[in-house]
């Protein structure tokens, strides 16, 4: 029995974009709140945004991509057979 696989459509693209934007906004609001509360100083905030924020956004993009079905590529289709 074969499995039915659907390609991600426009709804998945919108969900990926919205999820990425929401993750970035949540991270910026959290860092701003930490700065406002005095937990972080300005140099620490700059360092955090240069060192921690990019891997965080990459991780969010990877998780959203797998969850929404973007993880399938040409390598997951199986071997190529020439006739």
Number of strands: 0
| End-to-end distance | 24 Å
Average pLDDT: 86
Beta-strand percent range: under 5%
Which structural class do you get from the secondary structure elements? mainly alpha
Biggest β-sheet, characterized? none
What percent of residues adopt helix (DSSP H or I)? Answer: 55-70%
Number of helices: 3
Radius of gyration: 19 Å
Shape: elongated
Order of SSEs: HHH
- Detail the poorly predicted runs: none
Care to describe what's here?
Helices cover 64% and strands 0% of the residues. The chain contains 3 helices and no strands. The longest helix is centred in the N-terminal third of the chain and has 28 residues. The model has no long low-confidence stretch (mean pLDDT 86). It has a domain of 55 residues. It is mainly α and 83 residues long. The two termini are 24 Å apart.
Give a short synopsis of this structure.
The chain has 83 residues and is mainly alpha-helical. It has helices at residues 10-37, 42-51, 53-67.
Write the layout of secondary structure elements.
Blueprint lengths: L9 H28 L4 H10 L1 H15 L16
Helix pairs in contact: 1-3
């Amino acid at each position: 029995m074969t499995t039915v696989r659907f390609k991600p459509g426009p709804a998945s693209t919108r969900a990926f974009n919205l999820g990425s934007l929401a993750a970035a906004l949540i991270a910026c609001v959290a860092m701003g709140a930490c700065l406002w509360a005095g937990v972080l100083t300005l140099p620490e905030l700059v360092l955090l945004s240069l060192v921690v924020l990019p891997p965080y956004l990459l991780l969010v993009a990877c998780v959203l991509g797998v969850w929404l079905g973007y993880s399938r590529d040409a390598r997951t289709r199986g071997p190529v057979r020439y006739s």
